[in-house]
From TrEMBL:
InterPro entries: MFP. Residues 129-167 form a coiled coil. The keyword Membrane applies. It comes from the Bacteria. Keywords: Coiled coil, Membrane, Transmembrane, Transmembrane helix. The chain crosses the membrane at residues 34-52. One of its GO terms (molecular function) is efflux transmembrane transporter activity. This is HlyD family efflux transporter periplasmic adaptor subunit. PANTHER family: MEMBRANE FUSION PROTEIN (MFP) FAMILY PROTEIN, MEMBRANE FUSION SUBUNIT OF EMRAB-TOLC MULTIDRUG EFFLUX PUMP.
Length: 449
Protein backbone atom coordinates (compact mmCIF):
# COMPACT_ATOMS: atom_id res chain seq x y z
CA UNK A 1 0.00 0.00 0.00
CA UNK A 2 1.02 3.55 -0.58
CA UNK A 3 1.24 5.80 2.45
CA UNK A 4 -0.78 8.86 1.57
CA UNK A 5 0.68 10.77 4.46
CA UNK A 6 4.00 10.64 2.74
CA UNK A 7 2.56 12.06 -0.43
CA UNK A 8 2.93 15.81 0.28
CA UNK A 9 3.40 18.09 -2.66
CA UNK A 10 4.71 20.80 -0.39
CA UNK A 11 7.82 18.85 0.24
CA UNK A 12 8.51 18.44 -3.41
CA UNK A 13 7.32 21.79 -4.78
CA UNK A 14 7.80 25.18 -3.15
CA UNK A 15 5.01 27.77 -3.35
CA UNK A 16 6.88 30.70 -1.96
CA UNK A 17 7.12 32.34 -5.29
CA UNK A 18 3.29 32.29 -5.74
CA UNK A 19 1.90 35.35 -3.93
CA UNK A 20 -1.80 34.66 -4.44
CA UNK A 21 -1.49 31.17 -3.04
CA UNK A 22 0.46 32.48 -0.07
CA UNK A 23 -2.29 34.96 0.68
CA UNK A 24 -4.84 32.12 0.91
CA UNK A 25 -2.92 30.34 3.59
CA UNK A 26 -4.04 31.18 7.18
CA UNK A 27 -1.83 33.59 9.09
CA UNK A 28 -1.85 35.02 12.62
CA UNK A 29 -3.28 38.45 11.58
CA UNK A 30 -6.21 36.83 9.78
CA UNK A 31 -7.04 34.86 12.88
CA UNK A 32 -7.26 38.11 14.82
CA UNK A 33 -9.75 39.50 12.31
CA UNK A 34 -11.88 36.40 12.62
CA UNK A 35 -11.88 36.66 16.38
CA UNK A 36 -12.87 40.36 16.16
CA UNK A 37 -15.68 39.50 13.76
CA UNK A 38 -16.91 36.76 16.06
CA UNK A 39 -16.86 39.10 19.05
CA UNK A 40 -18.66 41.74 17.04
CA UNK A 41 -21.36 39.25 16.12
CA UNK A 42 -21.65 38.18 19.74
CA UNK A 43 -21.77 41.81 20.85
CA UNK A 44 -24.42 42.61 18.25
CA UNK A 45 -26.46 39.64 19.40
CA UNK A 46 -26.20 40.71 23.01
CA UNK A 47 -26.92 44.30 21.95
CA UNK A 48 -30.32 43.14 20.68
CA UNK A 49 -31.30 42.32 24.27
CA UNK A 50 -30.56 45.79 25.58
CA UNK A 51 -33.60 47.73 26.87
CA UNK A 52 -35.14 50.20 24.49
CA UNK A 53 -37.65 52.88 25.42
CA UNK A 54 -40.43 53.11 22.86
CA UNK A 55 -41.33 56.66 21.92
CA UNK A 56 -43.53 58.78 19.72
CA UNK A 57 -41.79 61.74 18.14
CA UNK A 58 -43.66 64.83 17.06
CA UNK A 59 -42.95 68.49 16.44
CA UNK A 60 -44.63 71.38 18.20
CA UNK A 61 -44.12 74.90 19.45
CA UNK A 62 -44.00 76.72 22.76
CA UNK A 63 -47.19 78.37 23.95
CA UNK A 64 -48.80 79.41 27.24
CA UNK A 65 -50.77 76.97 29.33
CA UNK A 66 -53.57 79.38 30.26
CA UNK A 67 -55.55 81.03 27.45
CA UNK A 68 -55.32 84.45 29.13
CA UNK A 69 -51.51 84.22 29.10
CA UNK A 70 -51.17 83.68 25.36
CA UNK A 71 -50.37 86.49 22.91
CA UNK A 72 -53.44 88.55 22.17
CA UNK A 73 -54.55 91.48 20.08
CA UNK A 74 -56.23 94.57 21.49
CA UNK A 75 -59.30 95.72 19.58
CA UNK A 76 -61.09 99.04 19.40
CA UNK A 77 -64.64 98.89 20.73
CA UNK A 78 -65.74 101.97 18.79
CA UNK A 79 -64.85 103.47 15.45
CA UNK A 80 -62.59 106.46 15.70
CA UNK A 81 -59.60 108.46 14.55
CA UNK A 82 -56.13 107.94 16.04
CA UNK A 83 -55.02 111.05 17.91
CA UNK A 84 -52.07 110.04 20.17
CA UNK A 85 -49.79 107.05 20.72
CA UNK A 86 -48.40 106.53 24.22
CA UNK A 87 -46.35 103.33 23.69
CA UNK A 88 -43.87 101.88 21.22
CA UNK A 89 -43.20 98.33 20.11
CA UNK A 90 -41.24 96.44 22.74
CA UNK A 91 -42.46 98.59 25.65
CA UNK A 92 -43.49 96.92 28.87
CA UNK A 93 -46.97 97.94 30.03
CA UNK A 94 -48.99 97.34 33.15
CA UNK A 95 -52.66 96.44 33.17
CA UNK A 96 -54.71 99.59 32.56
CA UNK A 97 -51.89 101.63 30.96
CA UNK A 98 -53.07 103.89 28.13
CA UNK A 99 -51.88 102.67 24.74
CA UNK A 100 -53.44 105.29 22.47
CA UNK A 101 -56.27 107.81 22.27
CA UNK A 102 -58.87 108.05 19.55
CA UNK A 103 -61.57 110.62 18.76
CA UNK A 104 -65.14 110.18 17.56
CA UNK A 105 -65.97 110.08 13.87
CA UNK A 106 -69.76 109.72 14.20
CA UNK A 107 -71.80 112.91 14.25
CA UNK A 108 -74.04 111.57 17.04
CA UNK A 109 -71.17 112.02 19.51
CA UNK A 110 -69.53 115.24 18.30
CA UNK A 111 -71.10 117.41 21.03
CA UNK A 112 -68.42 118.15 23.65
CA UNK A 113 -71.14 118.66 26.30
CA UNK A 114 -73.04 115.52 25.39
CA UNK A 115 -72.87 114.04 28.89
CA UNK A 116 -73.93 117.26 30.65
CA UNK A 117 -76.92 117.81 28.38
CA UNK A 118 -78.00 114.21 28.63
CA UNK A 119 -77.80 114.50 32.42
CA UNK A 120 -80.06 117.60 32.26
CA UNK A 121 -82.59 115.63 30.24
CA UNK A 122 -82.48 112.85 32.81
CA UNK A 123 -83.02 115.30 35.68
CA UNK A 124 -85.92 116.98 33.85
CA UNK A 125 -87.65 113.68 33.26
CA UNK A 126 -87.12 112.66 36.89
CA UNK A 127 -88.71 115.94 38.03
CA UNK A 128 -91.60 115.35 35.63
CA UNK A 129 -92.12 111.90 37.08
CA UNK A 130 -91.96 113.40 40.59
CA UNK A 131 -94.63 116.00 39.72
CA UNK A 132 -96.91 113.31 38.37
CA UNK A 133 -96.36 111.37 41.60
CA UNK A 134 -97.46 114.42 43.61
CA UNK A 135 -100.51 114.78 41.38
CA UNK A 136 -101.39 111.14 42.02
CA UNK A 137 -101.12 111.73 45.76
CA UNK A 138 -103.40 114.77 45.49
CA UNK A 139 -105.97 112.80 43.54
CA UNK A 140 -105.82 110.01 46.10
CA UNK A 141 -106.55 112.57 48.85
CA UNK A 142 -109.39 113.95 46.73
CA UNK A 143 -110.86 110.49 46.25
CA UNK A 144 -110.69 109.80 49.98
CA UNK A 145 -112.44 113.15 50.64
CA UNK A 146 -115.14 112.26 48.11
CA UNK A 147 -115.73 108.96 49.86
CA UNK A 148 -116.01 110.59 53.29
CA UNK A 149 -118.27 113.35 51.93
CA UNK A 150 -120.46 110.79 50.19
CA UNK A 151 -120.95 108.91 53.46
CA UNK A 152 -122.09 112.09 55.22
CA UNK A 153 -124.34 113.23 52.37
CA UNK A 154 -125.87 109.81 52.12
CA UNK A 155 -126.60 109.74 55.84
CA UNK A 156 -128.20 113.20 55.52
CA UNK A 157 -130.32 112.10 52.54
CA UNK A 158 -131.37 108.92 54.31
CA UNK A 159 -132.45 111.01 57.29
CA UNK A 160 -134.53 113.25 55.00
CA UNK A 161 -136.05 110.19 53.39
CA UNK A 162 -136.88 108.79 56.81
CA UNK A 163 -138.47 112.11 57.88
CA UNK A 164 -140.48 112.19 54.66
CA UNK A 165 -141.70 108.65 55.24
CA UNK A 166 -142.71 109.54 58.81
CA UNK A 167 -144.46 112.67 57.51
CA UNK A 168 -146.33 110.55 54.98
CA UNK A 169 -147.40 108.21 57.75
CA UNK A 170 -148.54 111.14 59.92
CA UNK A 171 -150.43 112.82 57.05
CA UNK A 172 -152.04 109.57 56.04
CA UNK A 173 -153.30 109.12 59.60
CA UNK A 174 -154.73 112.69 59.60
CA UNK A 175 -156.27 112.04 56.20
CA UNK A 176 -157.95 108.91 57.51
CA UNK A 177 -159.17 110.92 60.50
CA UNK A 178 -160.51 113.60 58.15
CA UNK A 179 -162.33 110.98 56.13
CA UNK A 180 -163.94 109.67 59.35
CA UNK A 181 -164.89 113.22 60.33
CA UNK A 182 -166.27 113.81 56.83
CA UNK A 183 -168.43 110.68 57.04
CA UNK A 184 -169.64 111.66 60.48
CA UNK A 185 -170.35 115.19 59.23
CA UNK A 186 -172.41 113.79 56.33
CA UNK A 187 -174.44 111.67 58.70
CA UNK A 188 -174.97 114.61 61.03
CA UNK A 189 -175.94 116.89 58.12
CA UNK A 190 -178.40 114.32 56.78
CA UNK A 191 -180.02 113.91 60.20
CA UNK A 192 -180.13 117.69 60.67
CA UNK A 193 -181.88 118.09 57.26
CA UNK A 194 -184.37 115.41 58.12
CA UNK A 195 -185.06 117.00 61.50
CA UNK A 196 -185.43 120.43 59.82
CA UNK A 197 -187.80 119.03 57.26
CA UNK A 198 -189.82 117.43 60.03
CA UNK A 199 -189.85 120.74 61.91
CA UNK A 200 -187.88 119.45 64.83
CA UNK A 201 -184.93 121.76 64.28
CA UNK A 202 -184.76 125.35 63.33
CA UNK A 203 -183.29 126.67 60.17
CA UNK A 204 -180.47 128.25 62.13
CA UNK A 205 -179.40 124.92 63.61
CA UNK A 206 -179.50 123.33 60.18
CA UNK A 207 -177.36 126.12 58.68
CA UNK A 208 -174.81 125.82 61.52
CA UNK A 209 -174.59 122.09 60.94
CA UNK A 210 -174.13 122.72 57.25
CA UNK A 211 -171.29 125.19 58.03
CA UNK A 212 -169.54 122.63 60.24
CA UNK A 213 -169.89 120.08 57.46
CA UNK A 214 -168.16 122.46 55.08
CA UNK A 215 -165.31 122.85 57.58
CA UNK A 216 -165.02 119.08 57.88
CA UNK A 217 -164.98 118.80 54.08
CA UNK A 218 -162.28 121.49 53.87
CA UNK A 219 -160.29 119.68 56.55
CA UNK A 220 -160.52 116.48 54.50
CA UNK A 221 -159.24 118.22 51.40
CA UNK A 222 -156.42 119.86 53.38
CA UNK A 223 -155.43 116.52 54.92
CA UNK A 224 -155.36 114.90 51.49
CA UNK A 225 -153.32 117.80 50.18
CA UNK A 226 -150.85 117.44 53.07
CA UNK A 227 -150.60 113.70 52.39
CA UNK A 228 -149.80 114.32 48.73
CA UNK A 229 -147.20 116.91 49.73
CA UNK A 230 -145.52 114.51 52.13
CA UNK A 231 -145.54 111.76 49.47
CA UNK A 232 -143.94 114.16 47.02
CA UNK A 233 -141.36 115.03 49.66
CA UNK A 234 -140.62 111.34 50.17
CA UNK A 235 -140.18 110.88 46.40
CA UNK A 236 -137.93 113.94 46.30
CA UNK A 237 -135.84 112.51 49.21
CA UNK A 238 -135.51 109.21 47.34
CA UNK A 239 -134.48 111.03 44.18
CA UNK A 240 -131.98 113.09 46.15
CA UNK A 241 -130.50 109.93 47.68
CA UNK A 242 -130.10 108.38 44.24
CA UNK A 243 -128.68 111.63 42.90
CA UNK A 244 -126.07 111.64 45.64
CA UNK A 245 -124.95 108.13 44.63
CA UNK A 246 -124.89 109.06 40.95
CA UNK A 247 -122.98 112.28 41.65
CA UNK A 248 -120.51 110.33 43.80
CA UNK A 249 -119.97 107.75 41.07
CA UNK A 250 -119.43 110.48 38.48
CA UNK A 251 -116.94 112.34 40.64
CA UNK A 252 -115.18 109.11 41.58
CA UNK A 253 -114.96 108.08 37.94
CA UNK A 254 -113.52 111.46 36.94
CA UNK A 255 -111.03 111.51 39.83
CA UNK A 256 -110.01 107.89 39.17
CA UNK A 257 -109.57 108.65 35.47
CA UNK A 258 -107.39 111.65 36.34
CA UNK A 259 -105.38 109.57 38.79
CA UNK A 260 -104.80 106.77 36.29
CA UNK A 261 -103.88 109.30 33.65
CA UNK A 262 -101.38 110.83 36.07
CA UNK A 263 -100.05 107.35 36.87
CA UNK A 264 -99.68 106.61 33.16
CA UNK A 265 -97.84 109.88 32.65
CA UNK A 266 -95.64 109.16 35.66
CA UNK A 267 -94.77 105.69 34.37
CA UNK A 268 -94.08 107.10 30.92
CA UNK A 269 -91.84 109.79 32.44
CA UNK A 270 -90.04 107.17 34.55
CA UNK A 271 -89.57 104.94 31.50
CA UNK A 272 -88.21 107.86 29.51
CA UNK A 273 -85.94 108.82 32.43
CA UNK A 274 -84.68 105.24 32.64
CA UNK A 275 -84.02 105.21 28.91
CA UNK A 276 -82.16 108.50 29.17
CA UNK A 277 -80.14 107.20 32.13
CA UNK A 278 -79.24 104.14 30.08
CA UNK A 279 -78.26 106.41 27.22
CA UNK A 280 -76.21 108.57 29.60
CA UNK A 281 -74.42 105.48 30.91
CA UNK A 282 -73.72 104.35 27.35
CA UNK A 283 -72.30 107.77 26.52
CA UNK A 284 -70.19 107.74 29.67
CA UNK A 285 -68.82 104.26 28.96
CA UNK A 286 -68.26 105.15 25.32
CA UNK A 287 -66.21 108.15 26.43
CA UNK A 288 -63.91 105.74 28.27
CA UNK A 289 -63.53 103.67 25.11
CA UNK A 290 -61.74 106.59 23.47
CA UNK A 291 -58.67 105.54 25.46
CA UNK A 292 -57.33 102.11 24.47
CA UNK A 293 -55.98 100.46 27.64
CA UNK A 294 -53.68 97.49 28.08
CA UNK A 295 -55.83 94.50 29.16
CA UNK A 296 -52.99 92.89 31.11
CA UNK A 297 -49.34 93.10 32.00
CA UNK A 298 -46.99 92.33 29.13
CA UNK A 299 -44.91 93.57 26.19
CA UNK A 300 -46.09 95.45 23.12
CA UNK A 301 -45.01 93.18 20.26
CA UNK A 302 -46.51 94.77 17.16
CA UNK A 303 -48.56 97.82 16.23
CA UNK A 304 -51.18 96.77 13.67
CA UNK A 305 -52.66 100.26 13.19
CA UNK A 306 -50.11 103.02 12.78
CA UNK A 307 -49.94 106.75 12.20
CA UNK A 308 -51.84 109.80 13.42
CA UNK A 309 -55.20 110.65 11.92
CA UNK A 310 -55.84 107.17 10.60
CA UNK A 311 -59.43 106.02 11.07
CA UNK A 312 -60.21 102.60 12.46
CA UNK A 313 -63.43 100.60 12.41
CA UNK A 314 -65.30 99.04 15.29
CA UNK A 315 -63.57 95.85 16.43
CA UNK A 316 -60.41 96.60 14.45
CA UNK A 317 -57.13 95.12 15.71
CA UNK A 318 -54.77 97.79 17.00
CA UNK A 319 -51.82 96.17 18.77
CA UNK A 320 -50.68 92.75 19.93
CA UNK A 321 -49.48 92.11 23.49
CA UNK A 322 -47.34 89.28 24.81
CA UNK A 323 -48.31 88.64 28.45
CA UNK A 324 -45.50 88.57 30.97
CA UNK A 325 -44.81 85.75 33.46
CA UNK A 326 -46.77 83.21 31.45
CA UNK A 327 -46.63 79.54 32.38
CA UNK A 328 -45.07 77.94 29.33
CA UNK A 329 -46.25 74.75 27.72
CA UNK A 330 -45.56 72.91 24.48
CA UNK A 331 -48.34 72.28 22.01
CA UNK A 332 -47.71 68.96 20.26
CA UNK A 333 -49.72 67.17 17.58
CA UNK A 334 -49.92 63.38 17.41
CA UNK A 335 -51.38 61.09 14.77
CA UNK A 336 -54.53 59.03 15.42
CA UNK A 337 -52.52 55.79 15.55
CA UNK A 338 -50.54 57.12 18.53
CA UNK A 339 -53.53 58.78 20.25
CA UNK A 340 -54.57 55.68 22.30
CA UNK A 341 -51.05 55.51 23.76
CA UNK A 342 -51.09 59.01 25.23
CA UNK A 343 -52.13 59.50 28.84
CA UNK A 344 -52.16 62.54 31.08
CA UNK A 345 -48.99 62.36 33.16
CA UNK A 346 -46.80 60.68 30.51
CA UNK A 347 -43.20 61.85 30.30
CA UNK A 348 -41.94 63.79 27.28
CA UNK A 349 -38.43 64.96 26.33
CA UNK A 350 -38.02 68.16 24.30
CA UNK A 351 -35.38 69.55 21.99
CA UNK A 352 -35.95 73.30 21.84
CA UNK A 353 -34.79 75.35 18.87
CA UNK A 354 -31.53 77.08 19.71
CA UNK A 355 -30.46 74.61 22.43
CA UNK A 356 -28.17 71.86 21.04
CA UNK A 357 -28.77 68.34 22.21
CA UNK A 358 -27.38 64.85 21.74
CA UNK A 359 -30.38 62.58 21.42
CA UNK A 360 -30.68 58.82 21.71
CA UNK A 361 -34.40 58.19 21.29
CA UNK A 362 -34.47 54.78 22.89
CA UNK A 363 -32.06 55.60 25.71
CA UNK A 364 -33.27 58.79 27.39
CA UNK A 365 -30.84 58.11 30.25
CA UNK A 366 -27.84 58.95 28.11
CA UNK A 367 -29.52 61.72 26.12
CA UNK A 368 -28.02 65.12 26.80
CA UNK A 369 -29.42 68.61 26.17
CA UNK A 370 -33.12 67.73 26.31
CA UNK A 371 -35.70 69.04 28.77
CA UNK A 372 -38.40 67.11 30.55
CA UNK A 373 -42.15 67.62 30.34
CA UNK A 374 -45.39 66.05 31.56
CA UNK A 375 -48.55 65.66 29.52
CA UNK A 376 -51.11 68.08 30.99
CA UNK A 377 -54.08 67.81 28.60
CA UNK A 378 -55.09 65.94 25.45
CA UNK A 379 -57.83 67.00 23.07
CA UNK A 380 -60.66 64.54 22.50
CA UNK A 381 -61.23 65.61 18.91
CA UNK A 382 -58.96 65.80 15.91
CA UNK A 383 -57.93 69.07 14.33
CA UNK A 384 -58.34 70.09 10.69
CA UNK A 385 -55.23 68.10 9.72
CA UNK A 386 -56.57 64.94 11.40
CA UNK A 387 -54.12 65.03 14.31
CA UNK A 388 -54.77 65.43 18.02
CA UNK A 389 -53.41 68.32 20.06
CA UNK A 390 -51.56 67.70 23.33
CA UNK A 391 -50.35 70.24 25.90
CA UNK A 392 -47.17 69.41 27.81
CA UNK A 393 -45.96 71.42 30.80
CA UNK A 394 -42.59 71.56 32.51
CA UNK A 395 -41.63 68.49 34.54
CA UNK A 396 -41.20 69.69 38.15
CA UNK A 397 -38.89 66.75 38.89
CA UNK A 398 -36.52 67.56 36.01
CA UNK A 399 -34.25 70.51 35.34
CA UNK A 400 -36.14 73.73 34.57
CA UNK A 401 -36.71 74.92 31.05
CA UNK A 402 -34.44 77.71 29.74
CA UNK A 403 -35.31 81.21 30.94
CA UNK A 404 -34.72 82.60 27.44
CA UNK A 405 -37.41 80.31 26.00
CA UNK A 406 -40.18 82.35 24.38
CA UNK A 407 -43.65 81.66 23.14
CA UNK A 408 -43.58 80.58 19.50
CA UNK A 409 -40.26 78.74 19.67
CA UNK A 410 -40.09 75.36 17.97
CA UNK A 411 -39.90 72.17 20.01
CA UNK A 412 -39.25 68.60 18.97
CA UNK A 413 -41.03 66.32 21.43
CA UNK A 414 -40.27 62.71 22.22
CA UNK A 415 -43.07 61.03 24.16
CA UNK A 416 -41.65 58.12 26.18
CA UNK A 417 -43.64 54.86 26.31
CA UNK A 418 -42.76 51.31 27.39
CA UNK A 419 -39.32 49.75 27.88
CA UNK A 420 -38.84 46.77 25.51
CA UNK A 421 -35.81 44.79 24.20
CA UNK A 422 -34.06 46.27 21.22
CA UNK A 423 -34.75 43.23 19.04
CA UNK A 424 -38.47 43.64 19.73
CA UNK A 425 -38.36 47.28 18.67
CA UNK A 426 -36.51 46.38 15.46
CA UNK A 427 -39.03 43.64 14.75
CA UNK A 428 -41.90 46.06 15.42
CA UNK A 429 -40.44 48.71 13.14
CA UNK A 430 -39.80 46.20 10.33
CA UNK A 431 -43.40 44.98 10.54
CA UNK A 432 -44.89 48.44 10.88
CA UNK A 433 -46.62 47.66 14.18
CA UNK A 434 -47.51 50.53 16.57
CA UNK A 435 -45.89 50.76 20.02
CA UNK A 436 -47.24 48.56 22.79
CA UNK A 437 -50.69 49.48 23.99
CA UNK A 438 -50.23 47.89 27.39
CA UNK A 439 -48.10 48.77 30.36
CA UNK A 440 -45.72 46.33 31.98
CA UNK A 441 -48.19 45.67 34.79
CA UNK A 442 -50.95 44.86 32.32
CA UNK A 443 -48.60 42.57 30.42
CA UNK A 444 -47.80 40.71 33.63
CA UNK A 445 -51.49 40.31 34.46
CA UNK A 446 -52.23 39.09 30.94
CA UNK A 447 -49.36 36.62 31.18
CA UNK A 448 -50.70 35.28 34.48
CA UNK A 449 -54.15 34.87 33.00
Amino acid sequence: MIDISQNKIGEKVTFSKYKSINMSFPQDEAKKRIRILVWLLVGAFLFLFLPWTQNVRSGGFVTALRPDQRPQTVHSIIAGRIENWYVAEGDYVQKGDTVLRISEIKDDYFDPQLLERTRLQVDAKNLSALSYSEKVKSLEIQINALKENNVLRREQAENRLRMAELQVTSDSIRFEQSKVNFKIGEDQLRRARRLYEEGLRSLTDFEQRELRFQEVQASLIAAENDLLKSQNARIAATIELNAIDNDFRDRMAKSSADMYEALSSRYDAEATATKLENQFSNYEVRTGFRYILAPQEGYITRAIQVGIGETIKEGAEIISILPANAQLAVEMFISPVDFPLMRVGNRVRFIFDGWPAIVFSGWPQITNGTFGGVVHAIDNFAGPDGRYRMLVVEDPEDKPWPEALRIGSGADGIALLNDVPLWYEIWRQLNGFPPDYYTARQKTENRKK
